[in-house]
Amino acid sequence: MEIKFIPLDYDTSEIGGRLYARIFGRTDKGERCCLFDKYETYFYIIAEYGNEEALKKKILDSYLRGRSDIELSRIDIVKKRFKETDINALKIFIRKRDMASFIEEIKKLKGIREIIGNDVNAVTSYISDSNLTPLVWHKIKVMNLEENPRLEDAKLGCKCFEISEIKEADQAIFIPKVMAFDIESEEFEIGKGRIIMIGISSGEFRKVITWKKAKKDFDFVEYVKDEIELINRFQEYVRKEDPDFLVGYFSDGFDMPYLRARADMNKIKLTLGIGGRQIRFERGVISSARIEGIVHVDVYKFISTIFAPALQSETLSLNEVSSELLGDSKLVIDWNSIHDDLERFYRYNLHDAVLTEKLFIKIWDNLSELVQIVKEPVFDVSRDRYSQLVENYILHNLSRFNEIPVSKPKHDEIMERRNRLKYEGAFVKQPEPGLYHDVAFFDFTSLYPSIIASFNISPLTLTEDRDNSYKTPEFEFQGKQQQFCFAKKQGFIPLLVHEIILLRKKLKQELKKNYSPALNARSYALKTIMNATYGYYGFFGARYYSVECAASTAAFARYYIKMVISSAEKEGFNVIYGDTDSIAIALGNKTKTDLLEFQKKINEQLPGDMELELENLYKSGMFVSKRTVEAGAKKKYALIDDKGKLRIR
Fold first, then answer.
1. What is the average pLDDT value for the chain, to the nearest integer?
2. Quick one: which H or E segment has residue 160?
3. Fewest Cβ atoms nearer than 10 Å: which of 241, 596, 608, 640?
4. Which DSSP category does 13 fall into?
5. CA 267 → CA 197, 259, 264, 272, 396, distances in Å?
6. Phi-psi bin for 283: left (phi > 0), alpha (psi -120 to 50), beta?
7. If we measure between CA atoms, which residue out of 475, 471, 448 comes closest to residue 461?
8. Nearest partner of 230 among 260, 281, 253, 196, judged by Cα
9. Residues 423, 477: contact at Cβ < 8 Å?
10. What is the 3-state secondary structure (H, E, C) of 437-481?
11. Which ranges in 514-546 belong to alpha helices (H)?
12. Whole-angstrom Cα distance, residue 590 to residue 440?
């Protein structure tokens, strides 16, 4: 049988002594499905002295053949690349999820140079190998679970099949089914007071469940006996509405742990997952609440990472973010008089859930595009920091280059990286405070990514060869003047960045001709990955960490912005201000034609993907001074263009 299916969430499970990927999603008929796909985890061994065959025989004969606790599937000798170098490697396949004890035993053997590829998340590895990309429609040939004795008892509370073949299908718009919720409690400290009410918003369905009864009834309020019935009724509504996404605002940090604490206190199970599965809390700075079969999204976490840099809001509270993104805000409530105005309290709770649902819908295009680009599940992408998004994008593209990923840093290595000296960052030319007329703002288009692409900057292209390489300007690094060199042979990370730059240019041209929210979201998602690569190089937890690469990128950026400032001054322009990747120029007696000619000359000198763009020409601009001194303040100015549009930074 063939179905059309869109994956929404993934996990792995050992069933009948072997590993399976489980993929939760919907068919094009709207039916919830879980697909099972047998999967073998694997890792690589690089043998010493090229003795792959001897090492393979030693592993099979001396240690592992016939061991039921390890379940070795097979060993292949494969041609791969590692750190941009051709190698032969042993590819070790095993049928169980936990390979740690297996590797500890393997390490005892002589003849091993390096063990690699063993620390990639199983779901990441499965998606990459199967090409079953999240939020992309696929045609999938499936079999009933009864046809596989291992899976007969593995059914969940939805239709379940085993995968036999995967093909990509024609794409269609997927409209997710969303349920937003918000709890109100007697105390702010997790679990200390009872949950008073839970607001739910899912399209036309809107409800407040509470045990705190007002003097009259309201059609959107359902009264229950006590807190136990409140929690159980909420769970019943989740099962009945069957959403793809259960969403909250700061729900990882408050709503979900509060629900769990009160459920534990009342000795009831929190079984929101399909088939009555309980919530799991995964560790982190703020733990993440995972629901089997339903994707829990904390809208706050995604907005705080992806949207926050572009927001004007002073905080990321639900009220301020909703006001800016939706033009709507929370209801005002007097907490001291809620017992006297329960109707207001009900509406306050419900409106929070409504705002949360609207925010999810607002961010959905951006989230879904980022998921499809990074190729990680929605649950993870909605919570990942920039560095993890970049790393996963790299991991999912390694197969194109036949590369094995380098290993994640261990604790001691991370500590050593943390303790390294800082390097010099962006150049800033402080503005002269005052009012200026005819002000042009120039920006380098994607300066740091274009430098990475243009000069092939990567930890794997860093070289001692000064004859056939790109050389940085000399700059102070780790306490002395240094100059780094990067090989001219294309590295795969700079190539990935270059591809994104070209794709974004194409998308921006398409957007000018025919704007669409989906295209704009895709452009923003690509920009997110592209711009985060520089920071990723300097992130101490990165696989492809290199502070030398980060410092070199910043050194090139300083060199080129200083070059543009110097060239502008030689041409007779008054450079008011320069910061990181942009400069402000007062034309004085120069014309716009002079300005465009200057831009053309600069772009003819810039290498590779680097480009200077005229952001806008303003009638007037005001640059202010710092509060304590007369010097100009960076990133603080007001500009007005010839259409009367005001830009304030």
1. 91
2. strand 159-168
3. 596
4. E
5. 19, 12, 5, 15, 43
6. beta
7. 471
8. 196
9. yes
10. EEEEEEEECCHHHHHHHHCCCCCCCEECCCCCEEECCCEEECCEE
11. 517-537
12. 11
| H, E, C per residue of 217-285 | CCCCEEECCCHHHHHHHHHHHHHHHCCCEEEECCHHHHHHHHHHHHHHHCCCCCCCCHHHCCCEEECCC
Instruction: Name the residue among 444, 443, 442, 439 with its Cα closest to residue 638.
Output: 439
pLDDT per residue over 97-111, tens digit each?
Answer: 667 777 888 888 889
* More reliable by pLDDT, 588 or 140: 140
User: What 3-state DSSP class applies to 109?
Assistant: coil
* Full-model pTM: 0.93
Summarize pLDDT for 151-160 with one digit per residue, the tens.
877 878 889 9
Among 236, 233, 229, smallest CA distance to 266 is for 229
354 three-class SS: helix
DSSP H or E segment with residue 619: strand 612-625
Question: pLDDT per residue over 495-549, tens digit each?
Answer: 999 999 999 999 999 998 998 888 999 999 999 999 999 999 999 999 999 999 9
What is the rounded end-to-end Cα distance, in angstroms, of the chain?
Answer: 58
pLDDT in tens, 159-214: 999 999 999 899 999 999 999 999 999 999 999 999 999 999 999 999 999 999 98
Tokens standing for 349?
């709770």
Between CA 170 and CA 53 the distance in angstroms is 45
What is the DSSP pairing of strand 646-648 with strand 403-404?
Answer: unpaired
Taking the C-alpha atoms of residue 289 and residue 385, their distance in angstroms, rounded to an integer, is 17
What's at 100, amino acid-wise?
A
Q: What is the C-alpha separation between 44 and 89, in angstroms, rounded? A: 6
Which residues have a Cβ under 8 Å from the Cβ of 78 and sit 6 or more positions away? 44, 88, 89, 90, 91
Coil, helix or strand at residue 74? strand
H/E stretch holding 101 reads helix 100-106
Q: And the tokens for 170?
A: 């024609």
Give me 354's structure tokens: 């409504």
Residue 635, token pair as written in the block: 């990133």
Using the 8-state DSSP alphabet, how is residue 406 labeled? Answer: P
| Alpha-carbon torsion angle 186, 190, 192, 195, nearest 10 | 40
Residue 449 burial (CB < 10 Å; 0-12/13-18/19+)? Answer: buried
Cβ atoms of 392 and 376 within 8 Å: the answer is yes
Structure tokens at 343: 């109707």
What DSSP element (H or E) covers 418? helix 411-418
- Rounded CA separation 482/319 (Å): 49
How far is Cα 381 from Cα 298, in angstroms, rounded to an integer?
A: 11
